[in-house]
Amino acid sequence: xxxxxxxxxxxxYDGILRASSLxxxxxCLVLYGCEADTQSPAAAAPAPKVILIxxxxxxxxxxxxxxxxxxGYNGRLRLDDMPERSSVQVQTVAxxxxxxxxxxxxxxxxxxxxxxxxxTSTGRIATTAKTDRDVTTxxxxxxxxxxxxxxxxxxxxxxxxxxxxIAHVSERLxxxxxxxVRTNERIPSFSTDCSADFKTRGGRGSIAEQxxxxxxxxxxxxxxxxxxxxxxxxxxxxxxxxAASNGYRVIGTExxxxxxxxxxxxxxxxxxxxxxxxxxxxxDAAAALVARQDDGRxxxxxxxxxxxNPAFAGTxxxxxxxxxxxxxxxxxxxxxxxxxxxxxxxQSHLRRPCGHIGExxxxxETLGLVLDYAREHPETLVLVTADHGQAATLVPQTSVLAxxxxxxxxxxxxxxxxxxxxMGVNYATNDSLLQEDHTGVQVxxxxxxxxxxxxxxxxxxxxxxxxxxxHLRLIE
Amino acid sequence: xxxxxxxxxxxxYDGILRASSLxxxxxCLVLYGCEADTQSPAAAAPAPKVILIxxxxxxxxxxxxxxxxxxGYNGRLRLDDMPERSSVQVQTVAxxxxxxxxxxxxxxxxxxxxxxxxxTSTGRIATTAKTDRDVTTxxxxxxxxxxxxxxxxxxxxxxxxxxxxIAHVSERLxxxxxxxVRTNERIPSFSTDCSADFKTRGGRGSIAEQxxxxxxxxxxxxxxxxxxxxxxxxxxxxxxxxAASNGYRVIGTExxxxxxxxxxxxxxxxxxxxxxxxxxxxxDAAAALVARQDDGRxxxxxxxxxxxNPAFAGTxxxxxxxxxxxxxxxxxxxxxxxxxxxxxxxQSHLRRPCGHIGExxxxxETLGLVLDYAREHPETLVLVTADHGQAATLVPQTSVLAxxxxxxxxxxxxxxxxxxxxMGVNYATNDSLLQEDHTGVQVxxxxxxxxxxxxxxxxxxxxxxxxxxxHLRLIE
Lengths: 476, 476
Description:
The structure is a homodimer. Chain A has helices at 18-32, 60-70, 107-116, 138-144, 160-163, 207-212, 224-227, 239-245, 254-258, 318-329, 343-349, 353-376, 462-471; strands at residues 49-55, 84-89, 148-156, 181-182, 192-193, 218-222, 248-251, 265-269, 279-281, 288-289, 291-292, 298-299, 306-308, 335-341, 380-386, 393-395, 411-416, 422-427, 443-448, 458-460. Chain A is an alpha/beta fold. In chain A, the strands form five sheets. In chain A, strands 7-8-6-3-14-1-15-19-2-20 form a ten-stranded mixed beta sheet, sandwiched between helices. The first copy, chain A, has a four-stranded antiparallel beta sheet with strand order 10-17-18-16, covered by helices on one side. In chain A, helix 2 packs across helix 12, helix 3 runs parallel beside helix 13 and helix 10 (318-329) runs parallel beside helix 12. At the A-B interface, helix 2, strand 2, strand 16, strand 18 and strand 19 of A face helix 2, strand 2, strand 16, strand 18 and strand 19 of B.
């Protein structure tokens, strides 16, 4: 039985976020008990376990920006002390011709590579490009083998990354019954047509309905709005009610999460959509276009620091959700648990550096808890990776060519760090007011509990599925 | 005696660059002999050796862009098969207050971290920030220990990266006697004042003079112009003549390099300044600002491919220089060899994707030769890393928000790849006409010949010095 994590390995990022740190310490005392490490009863042959942590959009720029801000340029994140590091070549193909690569992924196709071991086109949830065939995911293999399974995320549980581990649908936006067929006039490529996926047409229905009908043991995250919809072909029964009739205890508050009785399946929906993030720029500051003075000289934005996001109050931390999931799954069986910090990506899209730094901090804090679990259960493979790159880049806070009036042509922020310096963060993949694009950079892979000789410097993204499934002995 | 590399491990990037490939194959036949691998005579206790390969500006975006172009999105570079991969936190401090970090480095301070194991300020060559003290480099330690030493680069041998391994001067631009004190009116921060480094003032003189006076066994690269200058306090004697009187055989052509007699010190200067790069965009195409049509829609640049750069004809390849260095250094003693592909950085500054892809290809080709050497000499530690990040980012070739008229606000190129797709490369750290800035991202570290348990997921940049010096038993 997993009891919690030791105080020695808790390193909340203290200093400017005293309130947040205090909450963490109190959480430790109240929620976790903070006992000394207790050893599990030694089983004859412990069942292998996999915990896959995905930082959505967590590329090397994101990690460096977060490290500099959280622990300083000489500091170390928990990620930095992982025994093994590789990189992952993200793989995407064109929908109309799957023989042709696309060099920048989205979270749907990249999560499908990791969950099902296939390369597909953007927007697809565990289905093949062009031919639209369903592909078995590692969660489905684990369920069939009688293993425990869990999905934890700070996005809607129906969002592309978690969905790709359990659902099969041709377009990621088909999250709920009313969203299966929609027209987006502004951006036609964002229109959806999942009519072939309707249950009445022989499909599996929307992503929420597929989760409600699933045999996952634990599903925790946001997205309550999608489960509040009336299910397809029903007159009043909601997706949430279908989940309940399928055996799910459906919860929605931090208190319910902390006081969960043992046993049974649980579906936790802690926000209407994406869960609020823990930090924001002081006074809600974000990156902005660089203004110009009359003589053409740039008016660089004022440096700012991060502060707690008021909207985060009452939201379960990622580590609290992960702890609850581990407590439920720790019954001696093998299990497959996917934990996602989703808003590293979403906040970078929105050019909010404190947002993505805070969510990377949530991931690193959760990694501490997971590594504590793995220390007690050495049969646990821990993988940490990203699905694709993001727009934020760490650049000089003033250009080397500032005397020539040079400054970022994109959205630019300057963060004041606790070590007395200023860090420049640039967002310049496109010039729209709306949001940034992803990037196609190879992404990090960290591992512990794996024979290190198995990992060369780079692995294709589909290897995340292979490595996980081999560790669980689901494939050979 | 190292004889060359086997044909089996030669994988020149064939296809579009048939001429270049042909040259490589002919080189193999003519210059290398291409014999089957020959084992070195087994020594009782082989002397440890270190080969440090630096890709200037070679971050994960650069590697992914190069991989996609050179071997395809499912292909593998030699880098990708290295047994060990970590990342390096680049470290820089402010000149006026070395307690305060700067989050983006230049090649001088980052090379000093690797060569001498200290964190210093930008522009400094193996000297301390603010206090301007000289710091002993690994090459100096190796010379003092009676080991072989070599520096190979595609930049001027006086440029920041190579200079930091052997010279000590307060500002990187002090490459030659006439460059010690200069005023740059356009960019005052590019002005130099190395008057305290004049030999007549008790200093060590310009970088070229320090190299000429050094005990390095092999120095190969560009920068002939700096050695053609009259030395400080001389009336007619050039720096080159001083090098010759110090025992250097000074050469300047590919033919002289290929027909070097054995023994003695060699200084090869194969270009006036930076050596020409092997590739350019077809018709000299490079990234450009995205033009707008009357209705605001972006006029995306036409995709292009890479072609041989005519100016490269007659220039020794990086691998040829590396081979010559290895042949001279392979005398049974320990040695420290630094090999730099310098123009990955310089071409990214200039927004020339084919330029930096071609120079990364030169690095990967050279790595093949180095790994062949290390296979025959397993006491060789091979490290491959970058000094800092660069501006090029791999982005969608058309923005996801293209229907909203979104496109890069920076300099943008679209490369047509051999696998039938188009790759978007963006440069947007600043909006100057002149060049891009560096980035502060953590950079890759690849290793072979090291106990892999020694490398966690991240090491500080000063550890490159420590790891190399420990392997050579120069420090404990």
